[in-house]
Amino acid sequence: MTAEIDIYGVYVPTLLALMVLALPLSVVVRRLLAWCGVYSFVWHRGLFDVALYVILLGVLSSTSHWWLP
């Protein structure tokens, strides 16, 4: 993973960019899980949502070397 991403002359840490990218992805996955009824099997929805966000961030971070310059 590179240290920084250049966005129009502003250097942004890669992890921050991945966190911003993981947030809307997490919202989409949460809505899909709510629509499917998965949350009826979850004990604590807030903890589940945080864990889901961390997993998505980890997936984005581990695959970022393929699609980031």
Automatic annotation (TrEMBL):
Keywords: Cell membrane, Membrane, Transmembrane, Transmembrane helix
Pfam family, one: DUF1656
Membrane-spanning residues: 6-29, 50-68
The protein's name: DUF1656 domain-containing protein
Organism of derivation: Ancylobacter crimeensis
